[in-house]
Write a structure and sequence with these properties.
It is a single chain. The protein is an all-alpha fold. The protein is about 80% helix and about 0% strand. It folds into two domains: about 1-50; about 55-95. The chain contains four helices and no strands. Helix 2 (about 30-50) packs antiparallel against helix 3. The longest helix is centred in the C-terminal third of the chain and has 32 residues, at about 55-85.
Length: about 100
């Protein structure tokens, strides 16, 4: 999805997370930062889902649907971004 189709708040939040991740890469290995981001997203999404459930029964009822939805969303976004990097590899990563 192009930037034009997303709202400014979305991009501000996204850019802030990326800036923090880049800063963390100055201190820690990239793989550790990447793994931490994945864990953090999973933890936050689990909290968001749990806090929106009416009760434990409601939480348990749709848990597999949430896993499927979020997994599919991550896969779509990962493919989208890999394709973007493939298309713009020299511009993004050209090591002069």
């Amino acid at each position: 999805m192009s930037k034009d189709l997303r709202d400014d708040a979305f991009w501000k939040i996204t850019d802030d997370f990326i800036k923090l991740a880049n800063k963390q890469c100055d201190k820690y290995k990239n793989g550790k930062v990447s793994t931490s981001i994945i864990f953090s997203a999973a933890r936050f999404n689990a909290f968001m889902y749990a806090s929106s459930a009416k009760d434990l029964s409601d939480f348990q009822k749709d848990k597999s649907k949430v896993v499927e939805f979020l997994t599919n969303e991550y896969q779509k976004k990962l493919i989208e971004n890999l394709n973007d990097y493939e298309k713009n590899y020299k511009e993004y990563l050209d090591k002069k």
